[in-house]
Design brief:
By secondary structure, the protein is α/β, with parallel strands linked by helices. It folds into two domains: 304 residues; 142 residues, Rossmann fold, CATH 3.40.50. It is built from 16 helices and 18 strands. The strands form five sheets. Strands 9-8-10-14-17-18 form a six-stranded mixed β-sheet, with helices on both faces. Helix 1 crosses helix 16, helix 2 packs antiparallel against helix 15 and helix 15 packs antiparallel against helix 16. The chain is globular and about 55 Å long.
């Protein structure tokens, strides 16, 4: 096993890695200082068994790929503004028309409400999904300052969850209008093509790994299996300009239906004026070397052109903070000390929001990472590739499954978190637990739980309408 763990992310201030490679022994110390929640671990163990079954905890015979049967719901914070509620109402009515009024529910969330209590108040409980009470497809509306990331993560173990977290009511309205237009148009505005954008730097082991052992294997053969053509922009081809061309293809050329990017995400310190707008921006091949970074080297929300053509796109941005940023550091926590604040408040990343609410027609959904992404998403402690969650997610999307159901990291999180609990129990009983085993379980389980969907989790590619 490698003695070092690598973390995705480049500092916007220094151009250096956000986190230097972490020694396995140090990671084990951090893991031992944060024992697993026993009750949570036992629930995850039981849920994992259900997640490996056909129905995923839904009533027998309810296909989770059919929102009309599995149910669709929107969750507002109790104090959400009337303007935001009104902006989302056309989407709610659209779902009622498409799925049937009985399949659609509007739910509320109260400040400080814990996941179990929220479920109980709405007539459900962990371990089973009752669509007539809490639908399987849940769209959380609002920033994580109101509906917290912790609630989203735990719900996403058993439910197909997505979030819209815009800054203005007009952006919610734009997304709703764009989605409705996509689902009701005669044809699809995208080609049956999957683009893969993978940065690879000779000086950087992280991008070498993500380009060679994540993006390339996914691009090779997988889209063709589902009837999609492939375009791969890798290493020297993965420039800021070429990413811009994916979002704004030449006239007469259809944009791709699916985009996968593998790159460092940009990170800024708490309180920095550029954090809110550029956290998670994609560091492109233009980055010349560690220690040098400026706007020419990364693609942020501000770089998305006003005439971009991203309507109908589903994107998977593998990058540090690619989907959002929590308020507190969830990894590098000293035993006995509170977690360090890395942002003044939790927030959704600006680039995916710009894609979703683009005025010319927005993306359907963006998958990304909340917090930093680790290379343990790709290889395990024995240096073996573990791409199945990525392959299953991409395969489900390209088959036309609803994106929230296609996201396949929930099973991995449930299994790994239950295993982490067992290791902590063994340590409490005085049994030997190897540093590499504990470090791997801790990093992998936390990493797997942080993949998130931005957008309506019930959206799907209209593959039947593509050329």
């Amino acid at each position: 096993m490698s003695t070092s763990l690598f973390v995705n992310g480049v500092s916007g201030l220094t151009g250096e890695l956000l986190v230097p490679s972490l020694d396995v022994r140090r990671a084990a110390e951090l893991a031992r200082g944060r024992p697993a929640d026993a009750d949570l671990g036992r629930w995850l163990k039981e849920v994992w068994k259900k997640l490996t079954s056909k129905w995923l905890g839904l009533p027998l015979g309810v296909d989770p790929r059919e929102p009309g049967k599995a149910g669709w719901g929107v969750v507002f914070h109790e104090a959400e503004s009337a303007a935001v509620r009104a902006a989302v109402e056309p989407l709610i009515e659209h779902r009622r028309q498409r799925l049937g009024a009985a399949a659609v529910r509007v739910l509320d969330y109260r400040s400080g409400e814990e996941w179990r209590h929220w479920l109980a108040r709405h007539g459900a409980e962990p371990g089973s999904v009752l669509p007539q009470r809490v639908p399987y497809y849940l769209l959380l509306v609002g920033a994580p300052t109101g509906i917290p990331y912790d609630l989203e993560r735990l719900l996403a173990v058993e439910y197909a969850v997505g979030r819209l977290g815009f800054d203005a009511a007009a952006e919610y309205a734009q997304y709703a209008e764009s989605l409705i237009r996509y689902e009701t148009a005669a044809g699809a505005p995208t080609a049956r093509r999957a683009d893969f954008f993978a940065v690879r730097h000779a000086f950087d082991p992280v991008t070498q790994l993500t380009a060679d052992r994540l993006a390339r294997p996914l691009a090779t053969g997988l889209p063709g299996r589902y009837g999609f053509s492939t375009r791969e922009l890798r290493a020297e081809s993965a420039t800021k300009a070429s990413l811009g061309e994916i979002f704004r293809p030449p006239q007469g050329t259809l944009p791709p239906a699916f985009l996968f990017t593998a790159a460092h995400g940009l990170g800024w310190p708490k309180g920095h004026p550029q954090q809110r707008g550029e956290q998670g921006a994609l560091v492109c091949q233009d980055w010349p070397s560690a220690g040098a970074i400026d706007r020419r080297h990364y693609f942020s929300a501000a770089d998305l052109p006003s005439d971009a053509r991203v309507h109908g796109l589903i994107a998977f941005l593998f990058a540090c903070y690619g989907a959002g940023t929590p308020q507190r550091d969830e990894y590098l926590v000293e035993p006995g000390k509170p977690p360090r604040e890395i942002a003044e408040r939790p927030f959704v990343a600006a680039l995916p929001n710009a894609l979703l609410a683009h005025p010319q027609g927005g993306a359907l959904a963006v998958i990304g990472h909340v917090e930093r992404a680790w290379t343990y998403s790709i290889v395990d402690d024995a240096d073996r590739e573990q791409l199945l969650p990525f392959e299953n997610t991409l395969g489900g999307i390209l088959l036309g499954w609803p994106v929230g159901h296609a996201l396949s990291f929930r099973e991995r999180y449930a299994a790994l978190a239950a295993g982490l609990l067992k290791l902590h129990e063994n340590a409490r009983w005085g049994l030997a637990v190897a540093d590499n085993e504990l470090a791997a379980a801790w990093v992998e389980s936390n990493d797997a739980r942080n993949y998130a969907v931005l957008g309506d989790p019930a959206v799907r590619l209209r593959i039947e309408a593509m050329d």
